[in-house]
Specification:
223 residues, mainly alpha, Serine Threonine Protein Phosphatase 5, Tetratricopeptide repeat, 2 domains, 12 helices, 57% helix, elongated, signal, Ankyrin_rpt-contain_sf
Length: 223
C-alpha cells in the first residue's frame, strides 16, 4: 500500500512539474506576443535568446510576427524576421504577416516579407492574393510593390473578382484608385475579364460613374 501511494505521489509530482514547465513555456510565448504588440525589441531579443519558439501561436493562431504586423510595429517585425520568423505563417482566419501587410498597406513590413521568402501565390480566406485587397483599399505603393514582386495581376478570388475588378467595384473612383487601375493596366491586367456575373471592368466603372477609370480602360482596349 505504501509503495503504491508513493508511486502515486511521485506521478503527481512529475505531472505537476511537466505542467509547470508547459505553463512557463506558454507564459514566455505570451510574453513574446506581448513584446511584439508593444514594439519591444529588447524583450523580443531576450526571449529568443532564452529559446522561446519564434513561431509559437496565440489563441487566434497568430505568431508574434503577425501580431507585430497588425500594429505596423516595424522594429519588432524587423527583429523577428531577421531572427527567422515565418512570414507565411497563417492564423485561424488565414492571415499571414505577408498577406496582412499587403492588405493593410504596411509597406515597410511588406518589403521585408518579400525579401524573406513571401509566398506570392498564397491567398487569404477569400481566395485572394495580397494584391487584391491592396487594390481595393487604395494602397498605391503597395500595389506597385506587389506588381513588381511578380504577383499575378489576373488572379481571381472566391468572389469572382480580380485586383482590377475589386479596385473598381469596392473603390471610390478617386485619385488613388485611378492610379491603381493605371498600374494594373500597365502591368498587363486583362481589362475585359468579367466578374462572376459577367460584368466587365468597363461596365462596372460606367455604372458607378467613374469617368477617369473608364477612360483608362478604354485606352487599354476595354469593351
Amino acid at each position: 500500500m505504501f509503495r503504491l501511494s508513493t508511486v502515486f505521489v511521485l506521478a503527481l509530482l512529475i505531472f505537476a512539474s511537466v505542467s509547470a514547465i508547459a505553463s512557463g513555456a506558454a507564459m514566455n510565448q505570451s510574453a513574446l506576443h506581448a513584446a511584439a504588440a508593444t514594439d519591444d525589441v529588447s524583450t523580443i531579443e531576450k526571449l529568443l535568446a532564452e529559446g522561446v519558439e519564434i513561431d509559437a501561436r496565440d489563441g487566434s493562431g497568430a505568431t508574434a510576427l503577425l501580431v507585430a504586423t497588425h500594429d505596423d510595429n516595424i522594429a519588432a517585425a524587423t527583429a523577428l524576421i531577421e531572427a527567422g520568423a515565418n512570414v507565411n505563417a497563417k492564423d485561424n482566419i488565414e492571415d499571414s504577416p505577408y498577406l496582412y501587410a499587403g492588405a493593410r498597406g504596411h509597406l515597410e513590413i511588406l518589403r521585408m516579407t518579400l525579401s524573406h521568402g513571401a509566398d506570392l501565390k498564397s491567398v487569404n480566406r477569400y481566395g485572394g492574393t495580397a494584391l487584391i485587397p491592396a487594390s481595393e483599399r487604395g494602397h498605391v505603393e503597395t500595389v506597385r510593390t506587389l506588381i513588381e514582386a511578380g504577383v499575378d495581376v489576373d488572379h481571381v478570388n472566391k468572389l469572382g473578382w480580380t485586383a482590377l475588378l475589386e479596385a473598381i467595384i469596392l473603390g471610390d473612383g478617386g485619385e488613388r484608385h485611378q492610379q491603381i487601375v493605371g498600374l494594373l493596366v500597365k502591368a498587363g491586367a486583362n481589362v475585359n475579364l468579367a466578374d462572376g456575373d459577367g460584368v466587365t471592368p468597363l461596365r462596372n466603372a460606367r455604372s458607378r460613374g467613374f469617368r477617369e477609370i473608364e477612360k483608362l480602360l478604354l485606352a487599354a482596349g476595354a469593351s
